[in-house]
Amino acid sequence: xxxxxxxxxxxxxxxxxxxxxxxxxxxxxxxxxxxxxxxxxxxxxxxxxxxxxxxxxxxxxxxxxxxxxxxxxxxxxxxxxxxxxxxxxxxxxxxxxxxxxxxxxxxxxxxxxxxxxxxxxxxxxxxxxxxxxxxxxxxxxxxxxxxxxxxxxxxxxxxxxxxxxxxxxxxxxxxxxxxxxxxxxxxxxxxxxxxxxxxxxxxxxxxxxxxxxxxxxxxxxxxxxxxxxxxxxxxxxxxxxxxxxxxxxxxxxxxxxxxxxxxxxxxxxxxxxxxxxxxxxxxxxxxxxx
Length: 290
Ligand code: NDP
Hints:
Blueprint: E1 4-8, H1 14-19, E2 27-31, H2 35-45, E3 48-49, H3 52-55, E4 60-63, H4 68-77, E5 85-88, H5 94-106, E6 110-113, E7 116-117, H6 119-125, E8 128-133, H7 136-146, E9 150-157, H8 161-189, H9 194-201, H10 209-213, H11 215-220, H12 230-246, H13 252-261, H14 268-271, H15 278-285
Parallel strand pairs: 1-2, 1-4, 2-3, 4-5, 5-6, 8-9
Antiparallel strand pairs: 7-8
The structure holds NADPH dihydro-nicotinamide-adenine-dinucleotide phosphate (NDP).
């Protein structure tokens, strides 16, 4: 029987994901680098804010940090207990998942790469898509716990497979955003009403998740509300492009997309939502998508 669960990283995603875990365990521990957030989480959701040393001693440990490197750094200092399962919901690097899987296996711990999709709203509603890679027996044990914040849970293969799927998913999302912004730029220069155009596209074959849920809600209304920082998307595209290089593939469109999205560099990219990349296209063409 699962006794304790901990969640490490109460950011835009982790804050909400951790809030659902009380549905599946009476003992939910949370840790955050800015510890004040962990204490707030305890007050609001009835979880328990603990030290990182205590958090890694749970039966099931979730992490949701910006990068795989952040997770690896923690695991260089702290060791989970034998028999536990580490579920890494970071959008991470496949090779680091394989490395952590090997390292933890020697300590009797299972490591699953389990990145999520569905934005902060999906995290809040508990309807995230969770893709999982790693040992399948560990996955079956973890599935009922992951279910607490998931709409869809899909086992996609061995260690690192889920990080690869996530990187490709996000590169596709970036491609859809950029392509739609290009299309709308043409229509704007033709004097077309973009809201009417979007209505047509969303009832036609050119629609996508970006056209249905991002373009009007963040760009055309000029709000660019920050829920997913641009630097995190740049990281995901970088992970996908590294897989292209490692496998010696010729994929020109994804390389082009990376060039476009890397036009805003850190620290600015950390401060803005990924949708703000559209402003670069607008500046070059001296128009505004509204
Ligand atoms: P945020 O930047 O909102 O939160 C990052 C979290 O990680 C915070 O809790 C932060 O702590 C903590 N953190 C940052 N650096 C370190 C470190 N060096 N050591 C320990 N803790 C650290 O990120 P998100 O929640 O948006 O993203 C988390 C992961 O989920 C990323 O891999 C992202 O790509 C992925 N993701 C994000 C989505 C989104 O819509 N936002 C959607 C799907 C996946 P502190 O509070 O102290 O800064």
